[in-house]
Amino acid sequence: xxxxxxxxxxxxxxxxxxKRDILLRGLRNHRRRCVKQLLDHxxxxxxxxTLLDIPCLRDGIRLTTIHKHFSWKCDEELLSYINKMKSQWxxxxxxxNIELLxxxxxxxxxxxxxxCPSLIRxxxxxxxxxxxxxxxxxxxxxxxxxxxxERLFSIDSTILSFGTFLRDANILECYASCxxxxxxxxxxxxxxxxxxxxxxxxxxxxxxxxxxxxYDSNDTAxxxxxxxxxxxxxQHYLELPRPPQRSDSRxxxxxxxxxxxxxxxx
Length: 266
Prior knowledge:
Pfam families: DUF3723 (PF12520). This protein has 266 residues and is mainly α.
């Protein structure tokens, strides 16, 4: 399935919002709804906008699944993932050179995603062989390639992409459902924002917390407490309660309603 058309429509709308309605008509119903949901979510839209001028990352965007992510109330975590992905490719691999990054192709991303060359010998050897064979970074000149290779082999974390984003986001949903089950049900609140409102520092300075307008990512105590909760959910989510699911009778397809057949004698 070709997803690039959806992304191109989204890109054109962001460039010229006055053409929104006209451009959306070119999409089928489900795709139109997905693009509209992203457009109506300013924080996510801003994060996606930063990737529109980076073809190798932009090509991996799947707008048809974005509506699922909004329902998990994990905005901060998912946005952090997207920002980390861009920073990793721009700074850790391309050395902060946006023009160099724009020369990477989607095949380069597909080859490197999920790899960790600094810590996994098998990944290191695979990437080295791909570069040596000329299959990786085909559009990069030898001088630039030398720097890219050096930086690439020093990365000590998994190389992210929208491919890994979709995989990891689906895993995150399992943990998020556990936390959502024990938090107040508020439609417009994320998990992090609800945890922030419930957070009490070690000195129980309630007045301090009451005067905080919103979540501050620089608050070390809260960040550590939030991380501990996520780690606990990851370790024990199979044992934790989850939101009630629909009964089997509702999940099964119902037989069609058949009109009674009139007797031929009638």
